Amino acid sequence: MRVAIIKYNSGNVRSVLYALERLGIEAELTDDWEKIKGAEKVIFPGQGEASSAMRYLKERKLDQLIKELKQPFFGICLGQQLLCEHSEENDTTCLGIFPVKVRKFPPIDKVPHVGWNNLENLKSPLLEGLDEEAFVYYVHSYYAELSPFTIASTHYMDNFSALLHRDNFYAMQAHPEKSGLTGEIILRNFLNLK
Amino acid sequence: MLTKRIIPCLDIKEGRTVKGINFVALKDAGDPVELAKIYSDEGADELVFLDITATVDKRKTLVELVTKVAKAINIPFTVGGGISTVEDVKALLIAGADKISINSSAVKNPDIIDQMAAEFGSQCIVVAIDTKNIDGLDFVHTHGGRKPTILQTQEWAAEVSRRGAGEILLTSMDHDGTKNGFANDIISELSTMLPIPIIASGGAGNMQHFKDTFTAGKADAALAASIFHFKEISIPDLKAYLGEQGISVRLK
């Protein structure tokens, strides 16, 4: 299977490559339009800051490309946030695939939200084989609000969108590549999507 | 619900796992990659690798180790030991580490906390603090606990948090190696005072000590080494126990 991981100025993407390797998939890290367009699955990882990531994507017109893609597409962590409409992180206009706002956690509890938290209200083939005992690894200070596109939520201070889905676009705030067996199930389910 | 994390710590010297008792005597406790895989399969929530190698080739060896670990395990891990520059951090993160931990170098040059946080984000910068109580006051120690400083632990912890540390790994030198329990007074004090997670370290001897540091100590995570390496406590047993005691943990 041809899997492309979008290369941009995001932090560590090596972990995603290694996680796919453990599943027997040799993915390609690339910012080449044709390679991304021609891939069967596209993964959009992320770690870093929203406005500089958006600037980088725009400079290389990757923002346009992402919107045009039709194959299963998976945004992870900052990748999820960038697929939303707007982020409070440096007041950034994002890609707008999901009409959802990304907000900063209030200082009611510790921020960032670091550690293992469970998924609730699961509703998607992407989460096949998992239940509300499924824990995933989070490390983030911004979160996507709940929306009609939410396919699982997590509670930290309030409920937020753990995962989102619209058409061919899927997105997850936690790190499946670091979420043990649960993460492997999610990645495998994504790779099995038609 | 956000769970409390159990973190085995692997002390690394020249590519092998060792554990210092009170930071001095060392015993070989195995191959780090094998051990990492075992802990990850057993349900450890995270791992910490602390490199105490002092050779010139250290950085290269550490990057190689990080690469091997990142390929082998599917949980997050932190790397620490002798990290002092933005370039050091970059090399380790690129190799696959999720977070890095700094200690003496942050005391020597606190600005590197700001620089590293600005460059890579607070979420991957852990500041480790070795603390020792001297006549009723808590003082920061550096260089593996050998060097006392004039910094008071509470003030330094507040400063590193302000400068952008994402977590604090607090090791009580008074408790480390004693197996008499974690230093819950100061852990609770820091956890209440600061807006970032506190990882308790030093003193774990039995399962109740973990429960105590999560309740009385208000710790967000607890770290231990030899009791895991020498199988005095197994991670599945520990998590089952904590679950029964009403502590929120990630069970398989």
Summarize the structure in words.
The complex is a heterodimer of chains A (about 190) and B (about 250). Chain A is an alpha/beta fold and about 190 residues long. Chain A has helices spanning about 15-20, 35-40, 50-60, 60-70, 80-85, 180-190; strands spanning about 5, 30, 40-45, 75, 85, 90-95, 100-105, 115-120, 135-140, 140-145, 150-155, 160-165, 170. Chain A has a single domain (about 5-190), classed as Class I glutamine amidotransferase (GATase) domain (Rossmann fold, 3-Layer(aba) Sandwich), CATH 3.40.50. Chain A contains six helices and 13 strands. Chain A has a seven-stranded mixed beta sheet with strand order 2-1-3-4-13-12-11. In chain A, strands 6-5-7-10 form a four-stranded mixed beta sheet. A two-stranded antiparallel ribbon of chain A has the order 8-9. Chain B is α/β, with parallel strands linked by helices. Chain B starts with a strand and ends in an 8-residue tail after the last helix. Mean pLDDT of chain B is about 90; it is low at about 20-30. The chains are: A alpha/beta (about 190), B alpha/beta (about 250). Chains A and B meet through α1, β8, β9 and α6 of A and α3 of B.
Tags for this entry?
heterodimer; A: seven-stranded mixed beta sheet; four-stranded mixed beta sheet; 13 strands; B: 252 residues; alpha/beta; TIM Barrel; globular
In CATH, the topology of the domain at 80-244 in chain B is named TIM Barrel
End-to-end span of chain B in angstroms? 15 Å
The poorly predicted ranges of chain A are none
Q: Evaluate the radius of gyration of chain A.
A: 15 Å
